[in-house]
Amino acid sequence: MQKRLLFLLFVIQGLALTATGQEVVRRQQQTLQGQQHNGYSIKVPYAEHHAKRYWLTYLKERGKVTERRHFIEVKDIYWLNSGARQQAFSIVAGDSARSEVWIGYPAATPDTLLEAAIKEQLQKLPFLMKKYQLMASLQDAEAAATYLNREVESTRRQESKLENSLKRNADEKTKLEQQLVKNGEDKLRIEQEIKDAKLKQEQQQAEVEKINKQLQALKDKLSQLQE
User: Fold this and answer.
1) In the chain, helix, strand, coil percent, each to 5?
2) Whole-angstrom Cα Rg for the chain
3) What is the residue extent of each domain of the chain?
4) Which CATH code for domain 19-134?
5) Higher pLDDT pick, 29 / 19
6) Which residues lie across from 100 on neighbouring strands?
């Protein structure tokens, strides 16, 4: 964590040397909800969704922010050194490569102090954008790392389940193989018992036939004696 903060500080210090004064702040009026607003704008080299993300992150750290459909409403915010809390409005518009950030306030209430603060704020915006881009990149990297760690843990749990399942299958296979061996032994035993029973039956049948022959012989002798 400390190394990451030191790295962030180093990069931010480097950005401060290169980000200031690269873009021109220009006066621009906007019509919001049918009302004219005075303000200033500056262009930044970021896609609209990225610029809006960085800008909103910064604004939310400094005051109450409400994101409307077409603009951002900011209340109770200290605009740098303006010294007074003043409601202001902001618009971020652009494409996939560049965006324009506008800050303004209702034209019906001229405020030179606020205008100076807004202009100063926009002059610092390129540096702020780079700073919050880096912070967002770190957040995205941390989120990705957290997601990957969860995926790794999930994979480990799944791997453990599969290993347990394989072990159960192996145990079941061993039981089935043992049962097959036992069934084979039982089959051989039963076949032998059938052979033994058949042999015994044949022997008994032969004995019965022998006895029947003896009885028949005795009957024949008895018949001869009676004649």
Assistant:
1) 65, 20, 15
2) 48
3) 19-134
4) 3.30.310
5) 29
6) 43, 93
**Closest Cα to residue 44, out of 33, 31, 53?**
53
Cα diameter, the chain: 162
What pLDDT, on the 0 to 100 scale, is given for residue 90? 92
Residue 8 has pLDDT above 60, yes or no: no
User: Tens of pLDDT along 66-95?
Assistant: 888 889 988 766 565 555 566 789 999 999
Backbone angles phi, psi at 86, to 5 degrees: -145, 135
Per-residue pLDDT, 215: 85
State the Cα–Cα distance between residues 224 and 209, nearest whole angstrom. 23
The span from the CA of 37 to the CA of 32, in Å, is 7
Q: Which residues contact 132 (CB under 8 A, 6 or more apart)?
A: 53, 54, 55, 57, 58
Rounded to whole angstroms, how far apart are CA atoms 22 and 18? Answer: 8
What is d(CA 195, CA 121) in angstroms, rounded to the nearest whole number? Answer: 106
Residue 63 has pLDDT above 80, yes or no: no
Residue 221: HSE in the Cβ half-sphere, 13 Å Cα cutoff: 6
Q: What does the alpha-carbon distance between residue 22 and residue 102 come to, in Å, rounded to a whole number? A: 17
Nearest to 100 by CA among 51, 58, 57: 51
The two structure tokens encoding residue 56: 């909103």
